[in-house]
Design a protein that fits this description.
With about 130 residues, the chain is mainly α. The chain contains 6 helices and no strands.
């Protein structure tokens, strides 16, 4: 039976996300993440195979984080929820600009509609 990885995938992604938030997309390389983890590059290569897979996993992790940060929490009415989401997007843009650019302005390579205006898409609001 193969041994389990010494550095779990989730820890690698969490570390890379923290680096992304702190320093931006340009700071993320397999070497820089390994350095932050005080590791060799082997665990990252083993977990993700290549940089393309690593970046795709990081983009998904960043999107998850951003969606959690922008979801309304205490809104009682539809209008209040809409306003809260807008406020949360603005907070994210000002507080974590590297993450905002990565997820919502195309740096991640996610070619999906994950932005505030996608809430207005009637197909997403049918239920």
């Amino acid at each position: 039976m193969p041994s389990s990885p010494k550095i779990p995938k989730e820890l690698i992604l969490k570390t890379a996300l923290q680096m992304l938030i702190r320093s931006g997309n340009g700071a993320i390389t397999i070497q820089s993440v390994a350095r932050e983890l005080k590791s060799s590059t082997q665990p990252l290569s083993w977990q993700f195979g290549n940089m393309e897979n690593f970046r795709a996993a990081l983009a998904e992790k960043a999107l998850e984080y951003a969606v959690e940060k922008t979801n309304p929490r205490n809104a009682g009415t539809a209008f209040a929820a809409f306003k809260e989401v807008g406020d949360r997007y603005l907070d994210l843009a000002f507080d974590e600009p590297h993450l905002f650019r990565f997820v919502f302005l195309g740096e991640s390579g996610l070619h999906r509609e994950f932005h505030m205006f996608s809430m207005l898409d009637s197909r997403r609001n049918e239920s």
